[in-house]
Specification:
six-stranded antiparallel beta sheet, binds magnesium ion, alpha+beta, two-stranded antiparallel sheet, binds adenosine monophosphate
């Protein structure tokens, strides 16, 4: 197996001088060297062929004993020095101090086809940042991360990727419901891949500790490797860097809103400095379109990270990053301008994105109102987001009276007995029909374009759960089926129509389907 190893993070940034693996505060350093823990009986259960190729590996490599050992942490690649990153973060709005890679270990960075990839194992054992936890991950959360991160990529959403999903062979104790009933579950390890796993929290921890020198080193490093368009370090360029991070984060959250992805734990330690979706935990997919929905039971009271609040939270998190970068810029004006622009940029980009979802490719001054009314209607009764938008592409602009028939499959219960809801939709379709007269596309052309932004298949919460239940019994076929299905989320896939369906009733309140908790 030949990987083109090109480490930078653990070569160019200050390391924790202590190399023993025990829990501690790590200062004046960006990471600690740590070796993954050996596991009882590693077994690879799925591999992403695209990621294999991206890393310059072959399918023969994937079958090797070496591959299995490396990507489960049982063998350290020659000429590499695995490490865990030091970061802090605001959790649910409060500064939580040092967090760090408590159960993620970075193996190395490689360059293939001019692209840099960092390889990280999640669930490979304790690190100096494990605090009171075990450094491990269970099969269910690993399946969820593995399937969802690759699915998001194919949806066109900026995200970290995944190369492999493996069982460790060890058992892991977890209290799924946090109700004092812990049970053993199968341990698992996902190898995650991204150009970099740096988070807002990596910068925050240095600023909070007033370690401006290391902060500067880390920002310079980030710009040098990942924000190549920005030139030599200067106050002006640090501001440019912040502006770019804000743009990338905005882009990411607009995509989330487009596909109905709810991250669930948008703490600043889970915000990628590259604007990638990172740390798939208690995430969920909107079924009923609902601004107030969150899959995360840990957040069920305040619903801080609910669907409709995600853009605000990105902005809140950017404020925290601005505070962390301030010591390098020493002027608030520019930072404040970027934060103020975020609001305007969001309005514009959100509007454009929503236009594209309903097949409007020109601008009209009443579009915002039309879209607002649409979103109001979607909240009138439980309405499946994915089915609604996908079916809307069948709308014929001369036949507004057929609107409700076209979308009715998206309703979780019939609206027949609710004349007010029928009336609201009838009105909306009439306006929509008139608005479409301003567009040049035929119905067919519009449908084609809409179907490129409105996925037919997403990883509904219950689908992941079905794959988990089967995998728990040793059957990995559903993981493979969903993995392949979600490679082409915008195409019809006639033989897979069973996945284009509303959430079944049994899944409404089932743990794992719509109720999940942090850190499993
Ligand atoms: P999360 O909510 O998953 O983003 O995790 C928040 C923090 O807790 C991060 O620093 C994680 O590394 C750490 N963490 C989560 N689960 C574990 C675990 N099982 N063992 C050690 N650290 C963990
Ligand atoms: Mg995290």
């Amino acid at each position: 197996m030949k990987l083109n190893i090109q480490d930078t993070f653990n070569k160019e940034l200050p390391a924790d001088p202590i190399t023993e693996n025990y829990v501690r505060q790590v200062e004046q350093a960006c990471f600690s060297f740590v070796t993954p823990t050996q596991t009882a009986n590693p077994e690879i259960i799925h591999i992403s062929p695209e990621m294999l190729e991206n890393l310059g590996l072959s399918s023969d490599d994937a079958l090797s004993e070496e591959f299995k050992k490396i990507f489960t942490g049982n063998l350290v690649l020659a000429n590499t020095q695995p490490y865990a990153m030091c970061y802090g973060g605001h959790q649910f709005g409060n500064w939580a101090g040092q967090l760090g890679d408590g159960r993620a270990i970075n193996l190395t960075e490689i360059v293939h086809n001019d692209k840099r990839w960092a390889i990280q194992l999640k669930g490979a054992g304790k690190t100096p940042y494990s605090r009171t936890a075990d450094g491990l991950a269970v099969l269910r959360s690993s399946i969820r991360e593995y399937l969802c991160s690759e699915a998001m990529f194919h949806l066109g959403v900026p995200t970290t990727r995944a190369l492999s999903l493996a069982l460790s062979g060890d058992e892991v104790l977890r209290d799924v419901l946090y109700n004092g009933n812990p049970a053993y579950e199968k341990g698992a390890i996902v190898s995650r891949i991204a150009p970099s796993f740096l988070r807002f929290g990596n910068y925050q921890i240095l600023a909070v500790r007033n370690d401006i020198e290391t902060l500067k080193t880390l920002v310079n490093y980030t710009i040098k490797h990942f924000y190549l368009e920005i030139e030599e370090p200067s106050k002006e360029n640090y501001l440019k860097f912040f502006k770019k991070v804000a743009e990338n984060s905005l882009e990411m959250v607009i995509h989330w809103q487009r596909v109905g992805f709810v991250h669930g734990v948008m703490n600043t330690d889970n915000m990628s400095i590259l604007g990638l979706t990172i740390d798939y935990g208690p995430y969920g997919w909107l079924e009923g379109y609902d601004y107030g929905w969150t899959p995360n039971t840990t957040d069920s009271q305040h619903k801080r990270y609910r669907y409709g609040n995600q853009p605000n939270i990105v902005l809140w998190n950017l404020y925290q990053l601005a505070n962390a970068l301030y010591p390098l810029i020493e002027e608030t004006e520019g930072l404040e301008q970027v934060l103020a622009d975020f609001g305007t940029n969001f309005e514009n980009k959100y509007l454009d994105m929503m236009r594209s979802k309903i097949g409007l490719f020109t601008q009209d001054e009443n579009d915002q109102k039309l879209i607002q009314e649409l979103e109001n209607n979607l909240h009138l009764t439980e309405t499946d987001m994915t089915i609604f938008y996908r079916n809307l592409s069948r709308f014929q602009k001369e036949k507004p009276e057929q609107g409700i028939t076209i979308i009715q499959d998206a309703f979780y219960s019939s609206i027949e007995e609710f004349p007010k809801i029928t009336e609201a939709w009838t009105k909306w379709f009439e306006k929509y029909s008139l608005r479409l007269q301003l567009e040049k596309e035929t119905d067919t052309e519009r449908a084609e374009k809409m179907n490129l932004v409105n996925p037919k298949y997403v990883l509904r919460n219950y689908m992941a759960q079905l794959a988990i239940d089967a995998a728990d019994k040793g059957d990995y076929s559903l993981i493979n089926e969903l993995f392949n299905l979600l490679k082409n989320p915008y195409s019809e896939q006639e033989d897979q129509k069973k996945w284009f369906a509303k959430r079944p009733d049994w899944a409404r309140n089932k743990v794992g389907c719509s109720m999940l908790s942090c850190s499993s």
